[in-house]
UniProtKB/TrEMBL annotation:
The name this protein goes by in its record: HAD family hydrolase
Listed PANTHER family: HYDROLASE-RELATED, PHOSPHOGLYCOLATE PHOSPHATASE
A cellular component term, taken from the record's GO annotations: cytosol
InterPro entries: HAD-like_hydrolase_sf (IPR050155), HAD-like_sf (IPR036412), HAD-SF_hydro_IA (IPR006439), HAD_2 (IPR041492), HAD_sf (IPR023214), PGP-like_dom2 (IPR023198)
Key words, A-Z: Hydrolase
A molecular function (GO) term: phosphoglycolate phosphatase activity
Record has Mitochondrion as a keyword: no
Listed GO biological process terms: DNA repair
Amino acid sequence: MSAKFDLIVFDWDGTLMDSAARIVASLQAAGRDVGLPRRSDAECRNIIGLGLQEAINTLHPTMEPHHAPHFVERYRHHFLVACPLPEVLFDGVHEILQALERRRLWLGVATGKSRQGLDRALDHTGCKRYFHATRCADETCSKPDPMMLREIMADLDVAPERTLMVGDTEYDLEMARRAGAEALAVTYGAHEPQRLESFAPLACVDSATALATWLADNA
């Protein structure tokens, strides 16, 4: 069976890495450190996928701009150092990436993480070798702006109709739609299935095992 896609681009947090709880706890801790009102777990999960500045603006729209660097510093401290919650790949992710590598498909990452954060995660998990192009929110426009995905497609000279975006948030799916690419939703991450289904992805899969099966059969 010939491949339908030449390029598969993955979101990172909530799609390949089980980090949502750590992100939520770190956002709440940073807000506490800066003296801001506590935001609920649901409010924090809602902004996963956005760049950090866009996330701050959404969670704390009345925060004084000069407090933003302090919030960013405290968030990074909690996420990278202080938070006791795990940050691990979902079971089966290495096997998924290895299978796609064997098929000689282009692979990319489009993430709301910073470049420092993504490089740290790629090195820590041993996944760096799989990906041919990556973009982070501090290098280009934040999701759902399509620029991040368009830049990856341009880097690898792949047309939108030959590109699949895999993600766990509406920001991933909207970015794909605006870039002219197809999208596959995973429902085990940040946003609930009903929210993802409203963007009409090719499918919604509920586990990394189901993701592996779908990609083997349809990509």
